[in-house]
Specification:
With 224 residues, the protein is mainly alpha-helical. Helices cover 57% and strands 0% of the residues.
Length: 224
């Protein structure tokens, strides 16, 4: 009998007694995805830490924003690529392929966002997120001015920075604990539009990855 894959390298303690709303959230993950994302299980030793992580991730990725949900996933993936975060590249790579409806774009951003076919607005957004990841002390007014010229409001710039900062934290926790991604993520949303109809599908798309699948649908100001 094959052994169950290890969740992570650390053993911070047994699962805490989860609150009913968290158990409902996990049940929604099982319903929509077929599994509970391992990052949630990794935090489940402490109900307060798990709840804080889920609430912050939900608000950043699904809350009201001038950034579309796909753009926020682009930031998560571009940051995770710089940090070589296996967990987040796998899970948010799947989410980006789903949100963008374009597996080629999702793969390009995961490898090197400068190789992706991006418009000037999104390139400026990812350039800023990457610089904030690599050299935060070098961010200056010229960088914010570049984003404003690309069409971003100051609130949008805050959101770009908040998403980038959150995934820098998440990347480092995933690296420290060696949190392993759920294998199912690798097969999600890898078929081009119409491929299933034409008999070319590599794998059937699943529901959006991680938090988005388990949470109430909310629209950003730019839609999905």
């Amino acid at each position: 009998m094959p052994r169950k894959p290890k969740l992570m390298a650390l053993n911070p303690g047994p699962q805490d007694r989860l609150e009913p709303e968290t158990l409902d959230y996990f049940a929604k993950c099982e319903e929509k995805l077929g599994f509970v994302p391992n990052v949630f299980l990794a935090y489940a030793f402490d109900n307060a830490k798990l709840k804080a992580f889920m609430l912050m991730a939900d608000e950043l990725m699904l809350g009201e924003s001038g950034l579309s949900k796909a753009e926020r996933e682009m930031i998560a993936v571009a940051v995770s690529a710089i940090n070589h975060c296996h967990y987040c590249l796998t899970s948010h790579g799947a989410a980006l392929r789903q949100r963008a409806g374009d597996p080629v774009l999702g793969e390009a951003i995961a490898h090197n966002h400068r190789a992706a076919d991006l418009d000037a607005r999104r390139k400026a957004m990812l350039d800023f997120a990457v610089k904030l990841t690599e050299a935060p002390a070098e961010i200056e007014e010229a960088d914010r001015a570049t984003l404003r010229r690309a069409g971003f409001s100051d609130r949008d710039i805050w959101d770009i920075a908040a998403v980038a900062s959150f995934y820098n934290m998440s990347n480092r926790m995933a690296a420290a604990a060696d949190i392993r991604p759920n294998p199912e993520y690798h097969f999600m949303a890898r078929s081009p539009a119409g491929a299933a109809r034409d008999g070319l599908a590599m794998a059937a798309p699943r529901a959006p990855a991680a938090i988005a699948a388990a949470s109430p649908k909310r629209r950003s100001r730019r839609g999905d």
